[in-house]
Please model this.
Amino acid sequence: MRILLVSSEALPFAKTGGLADVATGLSKALSNAGHEVVLALPCYRRHIDELARGERIGQVEVAMKSRRVKADILETTLDESPLRVWLIDQPNYFDRGSLYVEGGLDYADNSERFLFFSRAVLEAARNQYLLPDVIHANDWQTGVIPAIVSQQLRHTADFANVGTAFTIHNMAFHGAFPAHDMALTGLPQKFFNWRQMEFYGQLNLLKTGIAFADMVTTVSPTYAREICTSQYGCGLDPVLSDCGDRLVGILNGVDPEEWNPEIDPLIPENYTLESVDVGKAACKSALQQQLGLAENPKALLFGMVSRLTDQKGFDLIAEKADAILQADVQFVFLGTGEERYENLLRDLQERYPGKVSANIGYNEQLAHQIEAAADAYLMPSRFEPCGLNQQYSHVYGTPPIVHATGGLADSVIDATDENLEERLANGFVFNKYQSDDFLEAVWRAVGMFQHHPEDWKRLQQAGMSRDWSWDQSADKYVKVYEQAISRTRSE
Model:
């Protein structure tokens, strides 16, 4: 199958969140399975080293209202993989300090930037650098692609049977812009209506992708159900409910070349399921020394790598941190976000020296070290479309503590007596988003770690022995692609 996967970010080129991990991990798995895959993203010049940009293979031109804008198509490969990568090089749009924002505000021309990017990718495909069987678009930045394919390109011979898939990674980000930006899409004004591209008087690119794609996916089965409700649908739940069997939830995977304690070059000692006790003890001791925590092997070390926001459960942590820290435990945090939570973590570190390490910012090596060193991983998110860190935690033998939502509900099995007996349990789950329920899950983890090490080992074994790689997820995406293509042929 020839697959064109389009994303606004991808590793190792540019990343602000999990979308980059997903775009690259899925593309590599599909390519390794024998499919011909091209991954397309903007050429963010200040983020992508010149040597990593590959070679110029052509140029495209796109009409943006009254202007015609050109872009070079650069092509490179990813490591030793057969995966091809297109970088859409248009410096006026993408040679900037960050991907989406400046000074905390979105770039004023984000609509124009990513509409141009989406249309440029399609022009490159039309020029037959790759004539795909399916085009897989991701999030609002590429939401116009399914619309252009279904309403314009499908009338051409080359694209008559090209299917489209559209993945929602987070419903909270709509890509909503003024109505006059409709002219930048290149589509007739008639599609600016409440069923397809308009949402409360604005152009909504997330809604556009949902409305026009042959298949719509999101990043976990539970989240696919949740977004069809008013609680999680962010106003688009009626559109999603109308999708019927066009909407599918597929749990994200883990790239075993990036996240694997057996070969991870970023941690002080590698380990496997068989050597997890020795390996994690060495990693824990090293991290405690590095971060100024008390070298106490018996203290349960909680790790957390996250944006510091309400969504990630920091309101629960703020309410219960003092109570938890009365026990023989330690915390290590890594992340950045809301100022009040950055200050909270700094305050905890100051008031509990040797027990709390607050690392404000982001550090890839430290993120790996935390996963390897921590005994348990905190992820009490209010909502979580999929989540990756709970899966990384399973791979590293670090049982997660989670709220039962989205992908967390799909990947963490609670440590009940029955689940432990059947060797299914791999973490701790609380069902209601309330601080007392969160605290109860934490106390269950502390009690098991300190008094029932044989049960703790079962949790680690259940997490580490499961295949969390992208291979299984990629197989499910191929089935979605096949459904998308079959829908074009039945029209």
In short: The radius of gyration is 23 Å. The chain has a mean pLDDT of 95.
